[in-house]
């Protein structure tokens, strides 16, 4: 049981903090409870036993509360429901337990005596308030701890993903200096202007891929690589490829994760030619609306469902992009896939301020 292991780990790591909190609250009540019990007619021994019982009940409630919190946290799918259910059930548990302790102490301490009812009720209400206060403290401590752990895990996952991507790039790449020198040599020796142009554009795309491994940069840096990439593809396919784009100045200046649109464009050309009946038509747009960056890539053709396991390169660009945006923006970025009768459209919407 995962929730039980989490509860044991929580008690092992944070149990000392909870225990000190319970003892501190109980210690604050010891003088008051002692005076109240004595004034209500209880014996000194009965009052001392009653205070000891209160302390043990508080410690037991902390343990039960941690177990209940972990169970609710792991079994409830909705965070809001999980939050208020934990507060409610945990509070009821503490109030009921401490109330039962007060009831039993009343029946045992005042045999043959008539206690002062006002003082007795003040004592019982105070014990309940302290129990609820302890419940709220432990709950919100655990909730903050869970949130901090989740945020730290997301940061680590994002760092590992960037590191893995960089390692994968390095594995698949020839030495960059050798590659660029070779392309320059080809360009210098070629007498065909089209070869010279395509080599220069290829150098631009490779330089972008090598220098932008994760992180943020103005979108215009990626857009330059997109222009070079499209010019290369235009040389390959000629009139079979028609591209229409519209990128606003605000979008060019926006800071966004890199690469963002280029993987979508590569997929659009690759799968578009496989499924488009005639000329492949591609539309690219990017704009800033309010505090959101929106980019859209649309191609003629139809959507191809990824197979499992996917061949190398098949839909990997899109899945990696979704994962990076999820980690970077913590659920605030959206990827919308639309499959129409004669076209496929993917729209990205992301806030211009990443999650902290």
What does this structure look like?
This protein has 356 residues and is an alpha+beta fold. The chain has 2 domains: 2-148, no CATH class; 239-351, Heat Shock Protein 90 (2-Layer Sandwich). Helices cover 68% and strands 13% of the residues. The chain contains 10 helices and 7 strands. It has helices at 2-40, 44-75, 79-109, 117-172, 176-189, 193-211, 219-237, 249-253, 262-275, 316-329; strands spanning 216-218, 241-247, 255-257, 280-289, 292-300, 334-339, 343-351. The protein has a 5-stranded mixed sheet with strand order 2-4-5-7-6. A hairpin with a 3-residue loop joins β6 (334-339) and β7. The radius of gyration is 33 Å and the shape is elongated.
Q: Rg from C-alpha positions?
A: 33 Å
Number of domains: 2
Approximate shape: elongated
Helix-strand string: HHHHHHEHEHEHEEHEE
The helix-and-strand class reads: alpha+beta
Helix percentage range: 55-70%
Mean of pLDDT: 72
Q: Strand share of the residues?
A: 5-15%
Biggest beta sheet summary: 5 strands, mixed
Low-confidence region ranges: 104-112, 308-314
Query: Largest sheet, order of strands side by side?
Result: 2-4-5-7-6
Whole-Å distance between the termini?
32 Å
How many H/I helices? Answer: 10
């Amino acid at each position: 049981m995962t929730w039980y292991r989490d509860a044991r780990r929580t008690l092992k790591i944070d149990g000392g903090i909870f225990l000190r909190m319970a003892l501190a609250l109980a210690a604050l009540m010891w003088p008051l409870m002692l005076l109240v019990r004595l004034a209500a007619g209880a014996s000194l021994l009965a009052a001392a036993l009653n205070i000891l019982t209160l302390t043990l009940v508080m410690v037991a409630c902390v343990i039960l509360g941690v177990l209940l919190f972990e169970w609710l946290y792991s079994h409830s799918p909705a965070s809001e429901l999980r939050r208020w259910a934990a507060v409610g059930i945990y509070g009821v548990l503490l109030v009921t337990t401490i109330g039962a302790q007060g009831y039993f102490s009343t029946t045992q301490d005042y045999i043959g005596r008539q206690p002062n009812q006002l003082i007795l009720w003040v004592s019982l209400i105070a014990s309940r308030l302290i129990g609820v206060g302890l419940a709220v403290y432990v709950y919100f401590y655990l909730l903050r701890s869970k949130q901090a752990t989740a945020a730290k895990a997301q940061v680590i996952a994002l760092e590992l993903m960037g590191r893995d991507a960089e390692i994968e790039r390095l594995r698949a790449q020839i030495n960059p200096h050798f590659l660029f020198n070779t392309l320059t040599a080809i360009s210098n020796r070629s007498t065909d202007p089209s070869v010279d142009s395509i080599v220069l554009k290829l150098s631009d795309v490779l330089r972008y891929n090598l220098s932008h491994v994760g992180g943020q940069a103005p979108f215009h840096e990626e857009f330059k690589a997109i222009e070079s990439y499209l010019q290369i593809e235009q040389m390959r396919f000629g009139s079979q490829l028609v591209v229409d784009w519209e990128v606003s100045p605000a979008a060019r200046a926006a800071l966004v994760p890199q690469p963002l649109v280029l993987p979508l464009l590569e997929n659009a050309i690759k799968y578009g030619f496989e499924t488009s009946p005639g000329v492949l038509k591609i539309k690219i747009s990017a704009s800033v609306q309010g505090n959101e960056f929106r980019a859209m890539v649309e191609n003629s053709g139809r959507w191809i469902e990824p197979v499992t396991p996917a061949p190398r390169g098949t839909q990997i660009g899109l899945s990696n992009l979704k994962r990076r945006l999820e980690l970077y923006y913590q659920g605030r970025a959206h990827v919308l896939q639309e499959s129409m009768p004669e076209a496929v459209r993917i729209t990205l919407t992301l806030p211009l301020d990443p999650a902290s």
